[in-house]
Write a structure and sequence with these properties.
This protein is mostly beta strands. The protein is about 10% helix and about 30% strand. It binds heme C.
Protein backbone atom coordinates (compact mmCIF):
# COMPACT_ATOMS: atom_id res chain seq x y z
CA UNK A 1 0.00 0.00 0.00
CA UNK A 2 2.69 2.43 1.03
CA UNK A 3 4.74 1.80 -2.06
CA UNK A 4 1.76 2.33 -4.32
CA UNK A 5 0.99 5.55 -2.50
CA UNK A 6 4.55 6.88 -2.86
CA UNK A 7 4.60 6.01 -6.53
CA UNK A 8 1.34 7.86 -7.06
CA UNK A 9 2.73 10.95 -5.36
CA UNK A 10 5.95 10.86 -7.38
CA UNK A 11 4.10 10.41 -10.66
CA UNK A 12 1.55 12.99 -9.65
CA UNK A 13 4.07 15.72 -9.04
CA UNK A 14 6.43 15.06 -11.91
CA UNK A 15 4.03 14.29 -14.70
CA UNK A 16 0.47 15.28 -14.04
CA UNK A 17 0.49 18.35 -11.80
CA UNK A 18 -0.18 21.48 -13.82
CA UNK A 19 2.81 23.78 -13.48
CA UNK A 20 2.06 26.97 -11.54
CA UNK A 21 2.17 29.97 -13.85
CA UNK A 22 3.82 32.21 -11.30
CA UNK A 23 6.64 29.70 -10.74
CA UNK A 24 7.23 29.41 -14.47
CA UNK A 25 7.33 33.19 -14.74
CA UNK A 26 9.93 33.46 -11.97
CA UNK A 27 12.14 30.81 -13.49
CA UNK A 28 11.81 31.57 -17.18
CA UNK A 29 10.75 35.16 -17.67
CA UNK A 30 11.45 37.38 -14.67
CA UNK A 31 15.18 37.60 -15.35
CA UNK A 32 14.41 39.76 -18.38
CA UNK A 33 10.90 41.09 -17.77
CA UNK A 34 11.57 42.39 -14.26
CA UNK A 35 14.46 44.51 -15.50
CA UNK A 36 13.91 48.20 -15.84
CA UNK A 37 14.55 48.11 -19.58
CA UNK A 38 12.45 50.21 -21.95
CA UNK A 39 12.87 47.66 -24.72
CA UNK A 40 11.42 44.81 -22.65
CA UNK A 41 7.71 44.92 -21.80
CA UNK A 42 7.33 45.21 -18.01
CA UNK A 43 5.28 42.80 -15.92
CA UNK A 44 2.51 45.42 -15.77
CA UNK A 45 2.38 45.50 -19.56
CA UNK A 46 2.29 41.70 -19.72
CA UNK A 47 -0.58 41.68 -17.21
CA UNK A 48 -2.63 43.84 -19.60
CA UNK A 49 -2.06 41.55 -22.61
CA UNK A 50 -4.56 38.83 -23.54
CA UNK A 51 -3.33 35.39 -22.41
CA UNK A 52 -3.98 34.10 -25.92
CA UNK A 53 -1.55 36.61 -27.37
CA UNK A 54 1.15 35.74 -24.81
CA UNK A 55 0.76 32.06 -25.66
CA UNK A 56 1.07 32.92 -29.34
CA UNK A 57 4.25 34.90 -28.65
CA UNK A 58 5.69 31.79 -26.98
CA UNK A 59 4.48 29.32 -29.60
CA UNK A 60 5.63 31.14 -32.71
CA UNK A 61 6.49 34.75 -31.93
CA UNK A 62 9.34 36.80 -30.50
CA UNK A 63 9.64 34.54 -27.41
CA UNK A 64 9.94 31.38 -29.53
CA UNK A 65 13.58 30.76 -28.67
CA UNK A 66 12.89 31.22 -24.94
CA UNK A 67 9.89 28.88 -25.06
CA UNK A 68 11.56 26.09 -27.01
CA UNK A 69 12.80 24.48 -23.81
CA UNK A 70 9.36 24.68 -22.15
CA UNK A 71 6.57 22.11 -22.24
CA UNK A 72 3.19 23.09 -23.68
CA UNK A 73 1.70 22.97 -20.15
CA UNK A 74 4.32 25.43 -18.87
CA UNK A 75 3.60 27.82 -21.74
CA UNK A 76 -0.14 27.65 -21.10
CA UNK A 77 0.31 28.13 -17.36
CA UNK A 78 2.52 31.22 -17.63
CA UNK A 79 0.35 32.80 -20.33
CA UNK A 80 -2.76 32.20 -18.27
CA UNK A 81 -1.09 33.56 -15.10
CA UNK A 82 0.19 36.70 -16.83
CA UNK A 83 -2.51 37.64 -19.27
CA UNK A 84 -6.08 38.86 -19.28
CA UNK A 85 -8.88 36.55 -20.21
CA UNK A 86 -10.79 39.01 -22.36
CA UNK A 87 -11.79 37.86 -25.82
CA UNK A 88 -9.11 38.60 -28.46
CA UNK A 89 -9.23 41.68 -30.71
CA UNK A 90 -12.32 41.45 -32.87
CA UNK A 91 -11.87 41.53 -36.64
CA UNK A 92 -12.73 45.08 -37.81
CA UNK A 93 -16.14 44.91 -39.54
CA UNK A 94 -14.73 46.64 -42.64
CA UNK A 95 -12.38 43.67 -43.21
CA UNK A 96 -15.32 41.34 -43.93
CA UNK A 97 -16.74 40.83 -47.42
CA UNK A 98 -20.11 42.45 -48.08
CA UNK A 99 -21.22 39.01 -49.28
CA UNK A 100 -19.91 36.48 -46.78
CA UNK A 101 -21.17 33.36 -48.56
CA UNK A 102 -18.46 30.87 -49.57
CA UNK A 103 -19.47 29.41 -52.95
CA UNK A 104 -18.12 26.44 -54.87
CA UNK A 105 -18.41 25.29 -58.46
CA UNK A 106 -20.77 22.53 -57.34
CA UNK A 107 -23.23 25.27 -56.36
CA UNK A 108 -25.63 25.93 -59.22
CA UNK A 109 -24.60 29.57 -59.62
CA UNK A 110 -20.82 29.32 -59.41
CA UNK A 111 -18.62 28.64 -62.42
CA UNK A 112 -15.70 26.23 -62.07
CA UNK A 113 -12.43 28.08 -61.64
CA UNK A 114 -8.76 27.02 -61.57
CA UNK A 115 -7.37 25.87 -58.25
CA UNK A 116 -4.31 25.25 -56.12
CA UNK A 117 -5.37 22.78 -53.45
CA UNK A 118 -2.79 21.84 -50.80
CA UNK A 119 1.01 21.93 -50.91
CA UNK A 120 1.19 21.26 -54.66
CA UNK A 121 -1.53 21.41 -57.32
CA UNK A 122 -0.93 17.68 -57.93
CA UNK A 123 -0.33 14.83 -55.48
CA UNK A 124 3.03 13.97 -57.11
CA UNK A 125 4.32 17.19 -55.49
CA UNK A 126 5.80 18.75 -58.64
CA UNK A 127 4.58 22.20 -57.54
CA UNK A 128 3.80 22.65 -61.25
CA UNK A 129 0.85 24.76 -62.34
CA UNK A 130 -0.30 24.71 -66.00
CA UNK A 131 -0.64 28.04 -67.84
CA UNK A 132 -4.36 27.34 -68.15
CA UNK A 133 -4.77 27.09 -64.37
CA UNK A 134 -2.06 29.58 -63.41
CA UNK A 135 -2.94 32.23 -65.98
CA UNK A 136 0.59 33.68 -65.85
CA UNK A 137 2.63 33.89 -69.06
CA UNK A 138 6.21 35.12 -69.61
CA UNK A 139 4.84 38.46 -70.82
CA UNK A 140 2.32 38.61 -68.00
CA UNK A 141 4.79 37.90 -65.22
CA UNK A 142 6.72 41.05 -66.06
CA UNK A 143 3.53 43.08 -65.55
CA UNK A 144 2.75 41.67 -62.11
CA UNK A 145 1.63 44.35 -59.66
CA UNK A 146 0.57 44.19 -56.03
CA UNK A 147 -3.22 43.92 -55.90
CA UNK A 148 -3.70 43.66 -52.16
CA UNK A 149 -1.88 42.87 -48.92
CA UNK A 150 -3.42 41.08 -45.94
CA UNK A 151 -1.76 41.18 -42.50
CA UNK A 152 -1.91 38.59 -39.69
CA UNK A 153 -2.61 40.54 -36.51
CA UNK A 154 0.15 40.23 -33.90
CA UNK A 155 2.24 37.70 -35.87
CA UNK A 156 5.93 37.91 -36.75
CA UNK A 157 5.85 35.13 -39.33
CA UNK A 158 3.66 34.45 -42.38
CA UNK A 159 4.36 30.85 -43.33
CA UNK A 160 1.14 29.16 -44.43
CA UNK A 161 0.77 28.56 -48.15
CA UNK A 162 -2.81 29.40 -49.20
CA UNK A 163 -5.21 26.98 -50.88
CA UNK A 164 -7.32 28.50 -53.65
CA UNK A 165 -10.55 26.91 -54.71
CA UNK A 166 -13.28 28.47 -56.88
CA UNK A 167 -12.28 32.02 -55.98
CA UNK A 168 -11.98 31.24 -52.26
CA UNK A 169 -8.65 31.46 -50.43
CA UNK A 170 -8.10 29.37 -47.27
CA UNK A 171 -5.00 29.82 -45.16
CA UNK A 172 -3.59 29.28 -41.68
CA UNK A 173 -1.33 31.60 -39.71
CA UNK A 174 1.30 31.68 -36.96
CA UNK A 175 -1.38 32.96 -34.58
CA UNK A 176 -3.45 29.85 -35.34
CA UNK A 177 -6.25 31.76 -37.06
CA UNK A 178 -7.64 30.11 -40.19
CA UNK A 179 -8.96 32.65 -42.68
CA UNK A 180 -11.40 32.20 -45.56
CA UNK A 181 -10.82 35.13 -47.92
CA UNK A 182 -12.07 36.24 -51.28
CA UNK A 183 -9.11 35.31 -53.52
CA UNK A 184 -9.58 38.37 -55.74
CA UNK A 185 -9.94 41.07 -53.08
CA UNK A 186 -8.69 39.66 -49.74
CA UNK A 187 -11.87 40.44 -47.81
CA UNK A 188 -12.73 37.97 -45.02
CA UNK A 189 -15.64 35.51 -45.15
CA UNK A 190 -14.98 33.68 -41.89
CA UNK A 191 -12.22 32.92 -39.38
CA UNK A 192 -11.59 29.93 -37.10
CA UNK A 193 -9.20 29.70 -34.14
CA UNK A 194 -7.03 26.58 -34.13
CA UNK A 195 -5.20 25.59 -30.94
CA UNK A 196 -1.71 26.23 -32.32
CA UNK A 197 0.15 27.89 -35.20
CA UNK A 198 -0.83 26.53 -38.63
CA UNK A 199 1.82 26.46 -41.33
CA UNK A 200 0.74 23.33 -43.23
CA UNK A 201 -1.31 23.90 -46.36
CA UNK A 202 -5.00 23.28 -46.10
CA UNK A 203 -6.30 20.40 -48.18
CA UNK A 204 -9.90 20.85 -49.36
CA UNK A 205 -11.74 17.57 -49.98
CA UNK A 206 -15.17 17.33 -51.59
CA UNK A 207 -17.94 15.80 -49.50
CA UNK A 208 -20.26 15.73 -52.51
CA UNK A 209 -22.19 18.67 -51.15
CA UNK A 210 -19.53 21.12 -50.02
CA UNK A 211 -15.93 20.66 -48.90
CA UNK A 212 -14.02 19.69 -45.79
CA UNK A 213 -10.84 21.64 -45.02
CA UNK A 214 -8.11 19.41 -43.56
CA UNK A 215 -4.98 20.71 -41.85
CA UNK A 216 -2.66 20.24 -38.87
CA UNK A 217 -1.15 22.66 -36.36
CA UNK A 218 2.19 23.08 -34.60
CA UNK A 219 0.91 21.44 -31.41
CA UNK A 220 0.01 18.14 -33.04
CA UNK A 221 -3.73 18.73 -33.59
CA UNK A 222 -5.43 17.87 -36.87
CA UNK A 223 -8.72 19.46 -37.97
CA UNK A 224 -11.59 19.13 -40.40
CA UNK A 225 -13.70 22.26 -40.97
CA UNK A 226 -16.71 22.86 -43.14
CA UNK A 227 -15.34 25.11 -45.90
CA UNK A 228 -18.60 27.02 -46.34
CA UNK A 229 -18.95 28.13 -42.72
CA UNK A 230 -15.61 27.48 -40.93
CA UNK A 231 -17.47 25.26 -38.43
CA UNK A 232 -15.46 22.45 -36.92
CA UNK A 233 -16.46 18.97 -38.16
CA UNK A 234 -13.89 17.11 -36.02
CA UNK A 235 -10.43 17.54 -34.56
CA UNK A 236 -7.99 15.18 -32.92
CA UNK A 237 -4.53 15.07 -31.40
CA UNK A 238 -2.45 13.03 -33.83
CA UNK A 239 0.34 12.18 -31.42
CA UNK A 240 0.40 12.30 -27.63
CA UNK A 241 4.03 13.41 -27.51
CA UNK A 242 4.27 16.93 -26.05
CA UNK A 243 6.68 18.09 -28.75
CA UNK A 244 4.70 16.72 -31.73
CA UNK A 245 3.99 19.20 -34.51
CA UNK A 246 2.42 18.93 -37.93
CA UNK A 247 4.60 20.95 -40.29
CA UNK A 248 4.19 19.03 -43.54
CA UNK A 249 0.95 19.39 -45.45
CA UNK A 250 -1.54 16.53 -45.63
CA UNK A 251 -2.51 14.75 -48.85
CA UNK A 252 -5.75 12.92 -49.51
CA UNK A 253 -6.82 9.97 -51.63
CA UNK A 254 -10.23 8.30 -51.84
CA UNK A 255 -11.48 9.28 -48.43
CA UNK A 256 -8.20 8.84 -46.53
CA UNK A 257 -6.00 11.73 -45.47
CA UNK A 258 -2.27 11.10 -44.90
CA UNK A 259 -0.75 13.29 -42.20
CA UNK A 260 3.03 13.62 -41.80
CA UNK A 261 4.15 13.87 -38.16
CA UNK A 262 7.19 15.83 -36.96
CA UNK A 263 8.27 17.50 -33.70
CA UNK A 264 10.25 20.26 -32.05
CA UNK A 265 11.91 17.84 -29.63
CA UNK A 266 15.26 18.63 -31.29
CA UNK A 267 14.98 22.09 -29.71
CA UNK A 268 13.30 20.91 -26.51
CA UNK A 269 16.38 18.78 -25.88
CA UNK A 270 18.53 21.90 -25.34
CA UNK A 271 17.15 21.95 -21.82
CA UNK A 272 19.61 20.26 -19.44
CA UNK A 273 16.95 18.31 -17.53
CA UNK A 274 15.11 17.04 -20.59
CA UNK A 275 15.18 13.25 -21.10
CA UNK A 276 16.36 13.16 -24.73
CA UNK A 277 14.68 11.82 -26.79
CA UNK A 278 11.40 9.99 -27.18
CA UNK A 279 9.55 11.38 -30.20
CA UNK A 280 8.96 8.98 -33.09
CA UNK A 281 8.40 10.40 -36.59
CA UNK A 282 5.81 8.93 -38.87
CA UNK A 283 2.58 9.19 -40.80
CA UNK A 284 -1.04 8.90 -39.69
CA UNK A 285 -3.75 7.84 -42.15
CA UNK A 286 -7.21 9.03 -41.09
CA UNK A 287 -10.71 8.71 -42.53
CA UNK A 288 -11.74 12.09 -43.92
CA UNK A 289 -15.27 11.39 -42.73
CA UNK A 290 -14.62 11.32 -38.97
CA UNK A 291 -10.87 11.34 -38.32
CA UNK A 292 -10.81 7.68 -37.25
CA UNK A 293 -7.43 6.01 -37.70
CA UNK A 294 -6.92 3.78 -40.76
CA UNK A 295 -3.27 3.12 -39.87
CA UNK A 296 -0.39 4.73 -38.01
CA UNK A 297 3.21 4.13 -39.02
CA UNK A 298 6.28 5.12 -37.01
CA UNK A 299 9.70 5.53 -38.59
CA UNK A 300 11.55 4.23 -35.49
CA UNK A 301 10.89 1.61 -32.77
CA UNK A 302 9.71 2.41 -29.26
CA UNK A 303 12.60 4.18 -27.46
CA UNK A 304 14.35 2.56 -24.49
CA UNK A 305 16.42 4.19 -21.80
CA UNK A 306 20.21 3.69 -21.83
CA UNK A 307 21.97 5.69 -19.15
CA UNK A 308 20.56 9.21 -19.32
CA UNK A 309 19.41 8.93 -22.90
CA UNK A 310 16.38 7.48 -24.62
CA UNK A 311 16.40 6.10 -28.15
CA UNK A 312 15.84 5.46 -30.96
CA UNK A 313 14.03 8.71 -31.69
CA UNK A 314 13.33 11.23 -34.42
CA UNK A 315 13.23 10.51 -38.15
CA UNK A 316 10.33 12.99 -38.33
CA UNK A 317 8.35 13.62 -41.49
CA UNK A 318 8.07 17.37 -42.02
CA UNK A 319 7.17 17.55 -45.71
CA UNK A 320 4.02 16.60 -47.62
CA UNK A 321 3.79 12.90 -48.57
CA UNK A 322 3.80 12.04 -52.29
CA UNK A 323 1.15 9.76 -53.77
CA UNK A 324 1.98 7.04 -56.30
CA UNK A 325 -1.49 5.81 -57.16
CA UNK A 326 -0.26 3.34 -59.83
CA UNK A 327 1.94 1.47 -57.32
CA UNK A 328 -0.32 2.02 -54.32
CA UNK A 329 2.54 3.74 -52.50
CA UNK A 330 3.05 6.85 -50.46
CA UNK A 331 6.56 8.31 -50.44
CA UNK A 332 7.76 10.24 -47.41
CA UNK A 333 11.10 11.87 -46.70
CA UNK A 334 12.51 11.79 -43.18
CA UNK A 335 14.73 13.88 -40.91
CA UNK A 336 17.58 12.86 -38.64
CA UNK A 337 17.55 10.80 -35.45
CA UNK A 338 17.55 12.88 -32.25
CA UNK A 339 19.47 10.44 -30.03
CA UNK A 340 21.35 7.13 -30.35
CA UNK A 341 21.00 4.57 -31.76
CA UNK A 342 20.95 5.79 -35.36
CA UNK A 343 18.35 3.96 -37.43
CA UNK A 344 18.20 2.97 -41.11
CA UNK A 345 15.09 5.13 -41.58
CA UNK A 346 16.53 8.60 -40.85
CA UNK A 347 17.50 11.03 -43.67
CA UNK A 348 15.74 8.63 -46.00
CA UNK A 349 13.04 8.29 -48.61
CA UNK A 350 10.49 5.70 -47.46
CA UNK A 351 7.82 4.01 -49.56
CA UNK A 352 4.71 3.11 -47.55
CA UNK A 353 1.86 0.88 -48.67
CA UNK A 354 -0.96 3.44 -48.86
CA UNK A 355 -3.55 0.84 -47.75
CA UNK A 356 -1.71 -0.52 -44.68
CA UNK A 357 1.09 1.94 -43.91
CA UNK A 358 3.67 -0.87 -44.03
CA UNK A 359 7.15 0.35 -45.01
CA UNK A 360 7.72 -1.38 -48.36
CA UNK A 361 11.22 -0.01 -48.90
CA UNK A 362 13.56 2.57 -47.46
CA UNK A 363 16.45 4.37 -49.12
CA UNK A 364 18.72 6.08 -46.64
CA UNK A 365 20.84 8.87 -48.12
CA UNK A 366 22.84 9.88 -45.02
CA UNK A 367 23.44 7.14 -42.44
CA UNK A 368 24.30 7.81 -38.80
CA UNK A 369 22.91 11.34 -38.59
CA UNK A 370 21.99 12.07 -34.96
CA UNK A 371 21.20 15.67 -34.10
CA UNK A 372 19.42 17.63 -31.37
CA UNK A 373 19.83 20.59 -29.05
CA UNK A 374 21.16 18.10 -26.51
CA UNK A 375 24.21 17.15 -28.57
CA UNK A 376 26.87 19.26 -26.96
CA UNK A 377 25.44 18.70 -23.49
CA UNK A 378 25.12 14.97 -23.83
CA UNK A 379 28.47 14.28 -25.43
CA UNK A 380 26.96 12.43 -28.34
CA UNK A 381 28.78 12.46 -31.65
CA UNK A 382 26.37 14.66 -33.55
CA UNK A 383 25.51 15.86 -36.98
CA UNK A 384 25.54 16.65 -39.78
CA UNK A 385 21.79 17.50 -39.42
CA UNK A 386 20.96 16.62 -43.01
CA UNK A 387 17.19 16.09 -42.80
CA UNK A 388 14.92 15.98 -45.74
CA UNK A 389 12.55 18.94 -45.42
CA UNK A 390 11.35 18.74 -49.01
CA UNK A 391 8.81 16.35 -50.45
CA UNK A 392 9.90 13.72 -52.94
CA UNK A 393 8.62 14.56 -56.44
CA UNK A 394 7.32 11.77 -58.68
CA UNK A 395 7.78 12.44 -62.41
CA UNK A 396 7.75 10.51 -65.66
CA UNK A 397 10.80 10.98 -67.88
CA UNK A 398 11.41 9.13 -71.14
CA UNK A 399 9.94 5.71 -70.44
CA UNK A 400 10.48 5.57 -66.71
CA UNK A 401 9.28 7.08 -63.46
CA UNK A 402 11.80 8.99 -61.36
CA UNK A 403 11.59 10.14 -57.76
CA UNK A 404 13.38 13.43 -57.16
CA UNK A 405 14.61 14.21 -53.67
CA UNK A 406 16.46 17.32 -52.47
CA UNK A 407 18.22 17.20 -49.09
CA UNK A 408 19.60 19.69 -46.57
CA UNK A 409 22.98 18.13 -47.45
CA UNK A 410 22.83 20.19 -50.68
CA UNK A 411 22.46 17.10 -52.88
CA UNK A 412 19.58 16.43 -55.25
CA UNK A 413 18.88 12.78 -56.11
CA UNK A 414 17.10 11.01 -58.93
CA UNK A 415 15.83 7.70 -57.49
CA UNK A 416 14.29 4.66 -59.16
CA UNK A 417 10.87 3.86 -57.64
CA UNK A 418 10.91 0.45 -59.43
CA UNK A 419 14.10 -0.57 -57.59
CA UNK A 420 13.53 0.41 -53.99
CA UNK A 421 14.78 3.92 -54.57
CA UNK A 422 18.14 2.96 -56.08
CA UNK A 423 20.14 6.08 -56.97
CA UNK A 424 19.98 6.85 -60.72
CA UNK A 425 21.91 10.10 -60.46
CA UNK A 426 22.93 12.72 -57.93
CA UNK A 427 24.17 16.28 -58.16
CA UNK A 428 25.50 18.68 -55.56
CA UNK A 429 23.81 22.08 -55.62
CA UNK A 430 24.82 23.49 -52.24
CA UNK A 431 27.33 23.09 -49.44
CA UNK A 432 24.64 21.79 -47.11
CA UNK A 433 23.89 22.98 -43.60
CA UNK A 434 21.45 22.95 -40.72
CA UNK A 435 19.28 25.31 -42.78
CA UNK A 436 19.81 23.50 -46.11
CA UNK A 437 21.13 22.83 -48.83
CA UNK A 438 17.76 22.23 -50.28
CA UNK A 439 15.27 23.19 -47.58
CA UNK A 440 11.53 23.47 -48.17
CA UNK A 441 10.81 22.20 -51.67
CA UNK A 442 11.75 21.83 -55.31
CA UNK A 443 9.55 22.06 -58.42
CA UNK A 444 9.56 20.10 -61.67
CA UNK A 445 8.16 20.51 -65.18
CA UNK A 446 8.52 17.93 -67.98
CA UNK A 447 12.19 18.88 -68.55
CA UNK A 448 13.88 19.98 -65.38
CA UNK A 449 13.76 19.92 -61.63
CA UNK A 450 14.39 23.34 -60.07
CA UNK A 451 16.29 23.38 -56.80
CA UNK A 452 16.82 26.60 -54.86
CA UNK A 453 19.82 26.68 -52.54
CA UNK A 454 19.55 27.89 -48.98
CA UNK A 455 23.04 27.51 -47.43
CA UNK A 456 21.89 30.19 -44.98
CA UNK A 457 25.00 31.21 -43.06
CA UNK A 458 24.60 32.18 -39.42
CA UNK A 459 27.22 33.36 -36.97
CA UNK A 460 26.33 32.82 -33.32
CA UNK A 461 26.14 35.96 -31.25
CA UNK A 462 26.02 36.03 -27.50
CA UNK A 463 24.78 39.38 -26.33
CA UNK A 464 24.83 40.52 -22.73
CA UNK A 465 21.92 42.82 -23.52
CA UNK A 466 18.70 41.01 -22.45
CA UNK A 467 16.75 43.10 -24.94
CA UNK A 468 18.79 41.69 -27.82
CA UNK A 469 17.03 38.43 -28.63
CA UNK A 470 19.13 37.46 -31.60
CA UNK A 471 21.00 34.21 -31.17
CA UNK A 472 22.87 34.65 -34.44
CA UNK A 473 23.55 37.12 -37.22
CA UNK A 474 22.87 36.21 -40.83
CA UNK A 475 25.70 36.58 -43.29
CA UNK A 476 24.39 39.04 -45.93
CA UNK A 477 26.70 37.61 -48.61
CA UNK A 478 26.55 33.83 -48.19
CA UNK A 479 24.01 31.36 -49.62
CA UNK A 480 21.36 31.36 -52.34
CA UNK A 481 21.26 30.37 -56.01
CA UNK A 482 18.89 28.41 -58.21
CA UNK A 483 19.64 25.26 -60.20
CA UNK A 484 17.80 23.75 -63.14
CA UNK A 485 18.69 20.06 -63.38
CA UNK A 486 17.69 17.79 -66.28
CA UNK A 487 15.35 15.14 -64.93
CA UNK A 488 16.50 12.50 -67.42
CA UNK A 489 20.16 12.42 -66.40
CA UNK A 490 20.75 14.80 -63.49
CA UNK A 491 22.94 17.16 -65.53
CA UNK A 492 22.84 20.87 -64.70
CA UNK A 493 20.81 22.76 -67.34
CA UNK A 494 21.56 26.21 -65.91
CA UNK A 495 22.43 27.98 -62.70
CA UNK A 496 21.22 31.41 -61.60
CA UNK A 497 23.65 33.11 -59.22
CA UNK A 498 22.33 34.48 -55.92
CA UNK A 499 21.51 38.20 -55.92
CA UNK A 500 23.30 40.32 -53.34
CA UNK A 501 20.80 43.01 -52.43
CA UNK A 502 20.92 43.06 -48.62
CA UNK A 503 20.89 46.67 -47.43
CA UNK A 504 23.48 47.29 -44.73
CA UNK A 505 20.84 48.57 -42.31
CA UNK A 506 18.58 45.52 -42.53
CA UNK A 507 19.43 42.84 -39.94
CA UNK A 508 18.25 39.31 -40.61
CA UNK A 509 19.02 39.63 -44.32
CA UNK A 510 20.56 36.90 -46.45
CA UNK A 511 20.51 35.91 -50.13
CA UNK A 512 19.65 32.31 -49.06
CA UNK A 513 16.74 30.72 -50.96
CA UNK A 514 15.23 28.16 -48.54
CA UNK A 515 11.60 28.71 -49.60
CA UNK A 516 9.82 26.16 -51.79
CA UNK A 517 10.05 26.67 -55.56
CA UNK A 518 7.06 26.89 -57.92
CA UNK A 519 6.99 26.38 -61.70
CA UNK A 520 4.49 27.30 -64.41
CA UNK A 521 5.42 26.94 -68.11
CA UNK A 522 8.37 29.24 -68.85
CA UNK A 523 8.61 30.63 -65.30
CA UNK A 524 10.21 29.52 -62.02
CA UNK A 525 9.36 31.39 -58.79
CA UNK A 526 11.84 31.43 -55.92
CA UNK A 527 11.87 33.62 -52.79
CA UNK A 528 14.78 34.53 -50.55
CA UNK A 529 15.49 35.47 -46.95
CA UNK A 530 16.28 39.04 -48.08
CA UNK A 531 12.54 39.32 -48.84
CA UNK A 532 12.70 39.18 -52.63
CA UNK A 533 10.33 37.06 -54.69
CA UNK A 534 11.77 36.49 -58.13
CA UNK A 535 10.49 34.95 -61.34
CA UNK A 536 13.20 33.28 -63.44
CA UNK A 537 13.01 32.12 -67.04
CA UNK A 538 12.83 28.32 -67.01
CA UNK A 539 14.85 28.38 -70.27
CA UNK A 540 18.01 29.99 -68.97
CA UNK A 541 17.48 31.37 -65.47
CA UNK A 542 17.34 35.07 -66.39
CA UNK A 543 15.30 37.12 -63.95
CA UNK A 544 11.95 38.18 -65.42
CA UNK A 545 10.46 39.85 -62.36
CA UNK A 546 11.75 40.82 -58.93
CA UNK A 547 9.73 42.25 -56.03
CA UNK A 548 11.23 43.24 -52.67
CA UNK A 549 8.50 42.32 -50.17
CA UNK A 550 10.36 43.61 -47.07
CA UNK A 551 8.49 46.87 -46.51
CA UNK A 552 5.32 48.22 -44.93
CA UNK A 553 1.88 47.78 -46.47
CA UNK A 554 -1.52 49.35 -46.24
CA UNK A 555 -3.61 46.20 -45.84
CA UNK A 556 -7.14 45.27 -46.86
CA UNK A 557 -7.96 44.17 -43.31
CA UNK A 558 -6.67 47.36 -41.71
CA UNK A 559 -4.00 45.56 -39.62
CA UNK A 560 -0.45 46.95 -39.65
CA UNK A 561 1.42 44.94 -42.28
CA UNK A 562 5.15 44.40 -42.79
CA UNK A 563 7.02 42.08 -45.11
CA UNK A 564 10.27 40.36 -44.19
CA UNK A 565 12.09 37.14 -45.03
CA UNK A 566 10.60 34.63 -47.45
CA UNK A 567 11.12 31.15 -46.04
CA UNK A 568 8.96 28.04 -45.92
CA UNK A 569 6.21 28.05 -48.53
CA UNK A 570 6.51 29.07 -52.16
CA UNK A 571 4.51 31.22 -54.55
CA UNK A 572 0.99 30.04 -55.32
CA UNK A 573 0.06 30.70 -58.96
CA UNK A 574 -3.59 30.46 -59.88
CA UNK A 575 -6.13 32.26 -62.06
CA UNK A 576 -3.80 35.07 -63.16
CA UNK A 577 -2.74 35.80 -59.56
CA UNK A 578 0.46 35.06 -57.62
CA UNK A 579 0.21 34.76 -53.82
CA UNK A 580 3.32 35.23 -51.71
CA UNK A 581 3.90 35.01 -47.93
CA UNK A 582 6.43 37.39 -46.42
CA UNK A 583 7.89 37.42 -42.89
CA UNK A 584 9.84 34.71 -41.06
CA UNK A 585 11.37 35.43 -37.67
CA UNK A 586 12.85 31.98 -36.99
CA UNK A 587 16.56 31.46 -37.76
CA UNK A 588 16.93 35.19 -37.04
CA UNK A 589 15.36 36.15 -40.34
CA UNK A 590 13.39 39.38 -40.85
CA UNK A 591 9.98 39.28 -39.15
CA UNK A 592 6.85 40.08 -41.14
CA UNK A 593 3.16 39.22 -41.22
CA UNK A 594 1.77 39.60 -44.72
CA UNK A 595 0.09 37.61 -47.45
CA UNK A 596 0.58 39.47 -50.75
CA UNK A 597 -1.54 39.03 -53.87
CA UNK A 598 -0.11 40.03 -57.26
CA UNK A 599 -2.05 40.23 -60.51
CA UNK A 600 -1.63 41.43 -64.05
CA UNK A 601 -4.96 42.95 -64.99
C1 LIG B 1 16.27 36.87 -22.68
C2 LIG B 1 15.32 37.82 -22.17
C3 LIG B 1 13.87 37.42 -22.15
C4 LIG B 1 13.28 36.31 -21.54
C5 LIG B 1 13.96 35.19 -20.78
C6 LIG B 1 11.87 36.43 -21.78
N1 LIG B 1 11.59 37.56 -22.50
FE1 LIG B 1 9.77 38.14 -23.18
N2 LIG B 1 10.63 39.70 -24.18
C7 LIG B 1 11.97 40.02 -24.16
C8 LIG B 1 12.19 41.15 -25.05
C9 LIG B 1 13.53 41.79 -25.34
C10 LIG B 1 10.95 41.49 -25.60
C11 LIG B 1 10.65 42.58 -26.61
C12 LIG B 1 10.80 41.95 -27.98
C13 LIG B 1 10.35 42.84 -29.11
O1 LIG B 1 9.56 43.75 -28.90
O2 LIG B 1 10.80 42.55 -30.22
C14 LIG B 1 9.99 40.57 -25.02
C15 LIG B 1 8.62 40.58 -25.34
C16 LIG B 1 7.69 39.75 -24.77
C17 LIG B 1 6.28 39.82 -25.03
C18 LIG B 1 5.57 40.80 -25.95
C19 LIG B 1 5.54 40.27 -27.33
C20 LIG B 1 4.56 40.98 -28.24
O3 LIG B 1 3.94 40.29 -29.01
O4 LIG B 1 4.45 42.21 -28.12
C21 LIG B 1 5.69 38.83 -24.30
C22 LIG B 1 4.23 38.49 -24.27
C23 LIG B 1 6.74 38.14 -23.60
N3 LIG B 1 7.95 38.72 -23.90
C24 LIG B 1 6.53 37.10 -22.73
C25 LIG B 1 7.55 36.38 -22.12
C26 LIG B 1 7.33 35.24 -21.28
C27 LIG B 1 5.98 34.68 -20.92
C28 LIG B 1 8.56 34.79 -20.89
C29 LIG B 1 8.88 33.59 -20.04
C30 LIG B 1 8.34 32.34 -20.46
C31 LIG B 1 9.56 35.66 -21.49
N4 LIG B 1 8.90 36.61 -22.21
C32 LIG B 1 10.92 35.51 -21.31
C33 LIG B 1 12.96 39.36 -23.45
C34 LIG B 1 12.79 38.19 -22.74
Amino acid sequence: MIRVYLLAVAVGTSLFAAPAGEEVFKQRCAGCHEQNNTRIPSVEVLHRMPAARILRTLNWGVMGNVAYTMSIAEREAVASYLGTHDPPNPVPPAAFCADRAVRFATDAKAKSQPQWNGWSPSANNTRYQSTQAGGITIDGVQQLKLKWAFAYDGDTTAFAEPTILDGNLFTGSAGGVIHALDAKTGCIRWTYDAKGPVRASIRAVSRGKGYSLLFGDQLGWFYSLDAATGKELWKKKIDEHDAARLTGSPVEYEGTVFVPVASWEENRASSADYPCCTFRGGVAALRVRDGSVVWRTYTVDVPKQTGKLWGPSGAPVWSAPTLDVARGLLYVTTGDNYSPPATATSDAVLALDSKTGKIVWSRQLTPGDIFSGGCSRQEIACGPDFDFGSSAILVHSGNRDILLAGQKSGIVYGLDPMRKGEILWQIRVGKGSTNGGVQWGMAADGQNVYAAVSDLARARVQSNDPADLRTSNLDPNEGGGLYAIRIADGIKAWYAEPQHTCPAERPGCSPAQPAAVTVTPGIVFSGSVDGHMRAYSSEDGTILWDFDTAREYATVNGVKGRGGSIDGPGAVVVGGMVYVNSGYSRQNGTPGNVLLAFGTD
